[in-house]
Amino acid sequence: MSHTIGNPLTWFAQRLGESSRHMGTGAKALGPVDRSRITVHDLTTRDVTRALRRGADDFMALRTDVIALVVIYPLIGMLLVWFALHRALLPLVFPMAAGFALLGPIAALGLYRMSRRRERGEPVGWTDVLHVARTPSLLPIVTLAAYLAAIYIVWLVVAATLYDVTVGPEAPASVGAFVADVFGTPQGWALMVLGIGIGAVFAAIVLAISVVSFPMLVDRPVGLPTAVATSIKVVRRNPLPIALWGVAVVVLLGIGVVTAFVGLVVTLPVLGHATWHLYRAAVDIAPAQGPVAN
Fold first, then answer.
1. How far apart, in whole angstroms, are the C-alpha atoms of residue 229 and residue 263?
2. What is the pTM of this model?
3. Which end of the chain is more exposed for a tag (fewer CB within 10 A), N or C?
4. CA nearest to 288, candidates 24, 109, 29, 43
5. Is pLDDT of 2 > 70?
6. How far apart are CA 35 and CA 22, in angstroms?
7. Residue 280's closest CA among 86, 3, 43, 29?
8. Would you kindly state where each structural domain of the chain is located, as residue ranges?
């Protein structure tokens, strides 16, 4: 049988058709359609440290493919800061950088699949991230990602409003003046204390709804409500281990940010892989009827 090479437009049309079919399947998974038996386990601090070690091990084993996948995120971070260094947007530099903790679960989607395949002894490559778009859970994943993006935008609005209320609505005259206002005035210290406190609330919300939901959706077509409800249940059942996990996320992402975002090339994939292993320790899912993501 002869084979022909299709033109680029034909190839694109075929891929678009495949994506549409998967979006249609995913739409059904937005509701409570899951028939799997889901068990949430008790976690210990040892489970958290073990997940981090296994995440680091995955990174070391896959670092060439992983770095090719995540190198874009430091570039995005530097671009955001460069954009925010415009005088009127200068107060948003720190909120933009801190917001990486809110968007991190989205950035790590491909890493969950890579850890999943390595756990099964299957071949792993950076192109595995492309297969996330073919999972039956695509629409729930996109919907949850949109929620996190919306939370990030709300955080930036709150941060800008907080700056106006404490320091004042006038744009800083320069970077030096901005630093002097923040660190050298009572209003600046009030801004930092309130900003850190409010930011922690945003981070806690994102942690609760996403700590296992994204890897769970990558793993099986469980539906968005089930994934989020399970994530919240994991947090409620394991407050101290999850709090430790949250601290680890903040510290590692913080290291990535303060190194001019270059450190994210290492810290982001370690956290992404570790999130998969934390999910595997926290949740068991019995085989479900219907299609399963590959």
1. 32
2. 0.80
3. N
4. 29
5. no
6. 19
7. 43
8. 42-283
